[in-house]
Amino acid sequence: MKIQILLLLALLVAGSLLAEPMPEFKLPNEAGKSVTLTELLGRGPVIIDFWADYCQPCKQAMPALDALAQKYDSLTVVLVSIDAAKNQNRAKNYLKGKNFAFVTLYDPDKTLAKKLNVGEPPHTFILDKTGEIMMEHKGFTAGVEAEYEMKVRSLLGIEAEKGHDCECEEPCADCQHENQATPEDKPCQDGSQKTPCSDCH
């Protein structure tokens, strides 16, 4: 009986780790043209970020998301406004003239937001090119964009940049951790302890 319970728990845990697909949607862009999820997929990873005009962290995230959109040609970044229809003009006016590289869509009735249990923005999803949700994050603080970039690079099959995602116990000479490496840096330790990761070297 105990073995059966353990097997059931193992299956439940394994199932929870499986990626779930982003539901298909059709939302209008700033010009009023409908855009579907299918149209956004296929080129590479997709970041979908829900935001609102009243949300300051959302606006703080925009330059970081724009930088990712411009850095990776195969990445599509989509910002979905959940502002009510009466507030859409304010959202559009905020974006006007900023020349952001991301796609802007509008979900005034929160049809898609409700399907994804999006409450307070910002709420970010990273999809692979088939539409599977590979990462989900609520809120935004400076630095979280580095986590987004690591996931994007992983989906693109690009190795981590030097100094990022290293598992060395202390900075080693080859890692050159930003603001940490010094001439006195020692090589990372071998054996049972963490060793220099291949991404650093």
Give an account of the 3D structure.
This protein is an alpha/beta fold. The chain has 2 domains: 140 residues, 3-Layer(aba) Sandwich (Glutaredoxin); 40 residues, no CATH class. Helix content is 31%, strand content 18%. The protein has a 6-stranded mixed β-sheet, with helices on one face. A two-stranded antiparallel ribbon has the order 2-3. Strand 4, helix 3 and strand 5 form a beta-alpha-beta unit. The C terminus is likely disordered.
Q: Nutshell version of this structure?
A:
The protein is an alpha/beta fold.
Give the terminus-to-terminus CA distance.
Answer: 49 Å
The overall pLDDT average reads 80
What's the name of the CATH homologous superfamily of the largest domain?
Answer: Glutaredoxin
Major beta sheet, strand line-up? 1-8-7-4-5-6
Give me the CATH fold name of the largest domain. Answer: Glutaredoxin
The total beta strand count reads 8
Q: How do the helices and strands follow one another from N- to C-terminus?
A: HEEEHEHEHEHEEH
Walk me through the topology.
Elements: H1 2-17, E1 20-21, E2 26-28, E3 34-36, H2 37-40, E4 46-51, H3 56-71, E5 76-81, H4 88-95, E6 103-106, H5 111-115, E7 123-127, E8 132-138, H6 144-156
Parallel strand pairs: 4-5, 5-6
Antiparallel strand pairs: 1-8, 2-3, 4-7, 7-8
Entry keywords:
18% strand, six-stranded mixed beta sheet, Glutaredoxin, 6 helices, alpha/beta, 201 residues, two-stranded antiparallel ribbon, single chain, disordered C terminus, 2 domains
